[in-house]
Amino acid sequence: MTDSTGKSKYQQVLVLENMVNKLETILESFGSREKTVMHIVEMLETIVSRHSPDNNELNEIIDILVATEGLERYITTLMRYSPSSTIPGLRARVTAYDAKILKAGAGLLVVTGSHTTSASLSGIFFYLTGDPRRLIKVQNEIRGILELTNDIIHGPKLASCTYLRARVDEAMRLTSSGPSELPREVMRGGIHIQGQYYPAGTVVGTSSWCDARNQRVYGDTDVYRPERWIVDEAEGVTKEHVARLKANFNPFGAGPGHCIGNVFAMSEILIAVARTLHRLGVRRTPGSMLGAGHPSLGWGARSPQQLHLKDAYITIRHGPEVQFRKRTTGSLGE
Questions:
Q1: Domain range summary for the chain, segments of one domain joined by +
Q2: Where does this protein hold heme (predicted)?
Q3: Known binding site for heme: residues?
Q4: CA 153, 157, 159 angle in degrees (round to 5)?
């Protein structure tokens, strides 16, 4: 559904969220804020008064803003500069967080702040050590572009290691840090998804483990093939093909609930892998199958070329077992 300007509801929400950010900046810049704040409050109250409580379109936008904390920040900002103001119809929709919710949120932040990185590194080194030919190739790229270990920092040189990034992306595709769905409740008015209607209150979600194995997007989904992420017209990998892969690839989530530290986390992963491979030789411990799939494990976990994952909202895994030693010519993994 669109409004008279052609904007969808989602676009309207993004505009309103942007207004929240701009409002905070504007209010901070004014020397005398009272008149400005009161004008904004009056304008908002007028808009609200024109809509009846059963206006589905307005209520849906308000619900989304509450869910993304945009409305709460908007009201908090206004109240900071005009404590006496009230915003009928909106303020009542914002509920306070109790201690239970705060504790749960804090616990989730502690886990998610480290889990994605640690789970990804497990997958990266599992697939690195399971493919010596590609391991040598990525080592040569890192050592050719980055002469010294101290050169391995966030920046253009590290970003130019395209094969390293492809190996990381492919390993993260196969090693979802949160393999099950991230549940979301359908808001007032319901929603249509791919022709199917879901009423308000329905819990929906998409499993990242399943997304990463979508055959319509990736084709050979169970094959570890980093080259799929690198544009190479000679090999039939076009820009459009890679763009489609990236559009489906959301290791840090998507939408309002995506990981706000995703850029830092990816940089942390790339630096950790690059420095390790620059300084050390690495190989899978001879004879070790720790973490690998096995026919006895059942559907989805039979392949020894796959890192076996267990879903506990976060990813539970054991392995791989690898060996490192200081880099010398002909060292482990070279």
A1: 9-96, 113-182+221-326
A2: 259
A3: 259
A4: 85
